[in-house]
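[Discussion] Sanity-checking designs against the backbone

I'm trying to build intuition for which residues belong where. Below is a C-alpha cell string of 205 positions. I'd appreciate it if someone posts a full sequence so I can compare it with mine line by line.
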C-alpha cells in the first residue's frame, strides 16, 4: 500500500465500532431487512422476528402473514416476508438448515445480492469478506482510493488494494463514518480527520 492508502486503512481499522453478534442465518435475514430501511427500524424488527422464531427450521414453517407483521414497518415488508420464508425453506431443504459459507451459493438465494452475501461471510462466519454498500462506495470514491461507478466495481478494486485482514472492519467503520462525517449531502469536511488525504475534501477547502 502507498502512504495515503495505508493512512486511510489504519484510520478505519482503529475506528471505534460495535456490532451486535448474530448467527449466520440471523445476519442473512437482518441484512435482507435492512435494504432501504433505517438501521434503528431494522434492529427492532429483526430482534422481534428472532425472538419469535429461533431457527431456520422454525422460520421455514412460519406463516408469511405473521412474518410480515413481525418485520413491519421495514421497507417493502410484505415482499421481504415472502423472500424470508422462501430463503428459510431453501436453507432447510437444500442445506440442512445451515447457511452456506460461500458467496456463489448465497447469491442463489432469493433477494440476496453481493452486499448481503458478503455481510453473511464477514459478520456471520467472521471470514474475510468486504461488503460494499452505498457508504463504502461513496467514501472510497471521495477519498480517491478508487474511481468507480458501481459498488461491484468498488468491491473488486478494494479487494485488490487492501489486505484481507482489514476487510471485515472496513464496512462497519465506513458506514458509521458515512453517517456521522462523510454524509451523502453536506459532508462535514471541516472536521474530517482524513481531509488532507481526501480528493473530495481537498477540492472543497
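Best answer:
Here's mine. Compare freely.
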Amino acid at each position: 500500500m502507498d502512504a495515503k492508502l495505508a493512512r486511510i486503512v489504519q484510520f478505519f481499522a482503529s475506528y471505534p465500532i460495535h456490532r451486535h453478534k448474530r448467527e449466520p442465518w440471523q445476519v442473512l435475514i437482518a441484512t435482507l431487512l435492512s435494504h432501504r430501511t433505517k438501521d434503528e427500524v431494522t434492529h427492532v424488527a429483526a430482534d422481534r422476528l428472532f425472538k419469535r422464531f429461533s431457527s431456520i427450521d422454525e422460520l421455514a414453517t412460519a406463516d408469511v402473514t405473521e412474518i410480515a407483521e413481525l418485520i413491519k414497518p421495514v421497507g417493502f415488508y410484505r415482499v421481504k416476508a415472502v423472500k424470508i420464508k422462501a430463503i428459510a425453506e431453501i436453507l432447510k431443504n437444500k442445506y440442512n438448515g445451515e447457511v452456506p459459507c460461500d458467496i456463489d451459493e448465497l447469491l442463489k438465494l432469493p433477494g440476496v445480492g453481493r452486499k448481503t452475501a458478503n455481510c453473511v461471510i464477514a459478520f456471520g462466519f467472521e471470514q474475510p469478506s468486504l461488503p460494499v454498500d452505498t457508504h463504502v462506495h461513496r467514501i472510497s470514491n471521495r477519498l480517491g482510493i478508487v474511481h468507480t461507478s458501481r459498488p461491484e466495481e468498488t468491491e473488486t478494486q478494494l479487494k485488490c488494494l487492501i489486505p484481507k485482514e482489514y476487510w471485515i472492519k472496513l464496512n462497519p467503520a465506513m458506514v458509521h463514518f458515512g453517517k456521522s462525517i462523510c454524509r451523502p449531502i453536506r459532508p462535514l469536511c471541516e472536521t474530517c480527520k482524513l481531509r488532507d488525504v481526501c480528493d473530495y475534501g481537498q477540492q472543497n477547502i
